[in-house]
Fold Rrf2 family transcriptional regulator.
Amino acid sequence: MRRDSRLSGVLHVLLHMAEFEGAVTSERLASVMDTNPVVVRRLMGGLRDLGLVASEKGHGGGWTLNCDLDRVSLRDVYVALGSPEILTMGHRNEEPTCLVEQAVNAALGTAFEDAERLLLERLGEVTLARLSADFHARMAKRGLCSQEPEPDVA
């Protein structure tokens, strides 16, 4: 089963961007993410459309944060990604004629709805600033400074 890791990836990119002075190229972000610059550009498109990041072409160009980390929740970023499916589980048949399967669908449907609602609620409670503060606390615990992050602090 394939997992959709775009939200995790975009949050990773945004936190790295918060550490850089000025614009950051897709190539630099791709290096941090150990991926291809095309993947970074694809991920950033929805964020740019919602005004969370900005991009500039040409020499000295790249991506910049265009938002206040205190005002952007993980749910906002999830929406900027197009609100991808949260659960990969689903009903065997969406409109069953079998009464047993109807009972199963009703029970599972309620559980799926509850799980999605809870996750979206929790994502709405966490801001990018909170993630950044957690990152900085982890850096301080290791005795590192955070001017420009290493490719990835493991």
User: Anything to note?
Assistant: Strands lie at 53-56, 62-65. The helical segments are 6-19, 26-33, 37-49, 74-80, 99-125, 128-142. The longest strand covers residues 53-56. The domain at 6-142 is CATH 1.10.10.10 (Arc Repressor Mutant, subunit A).
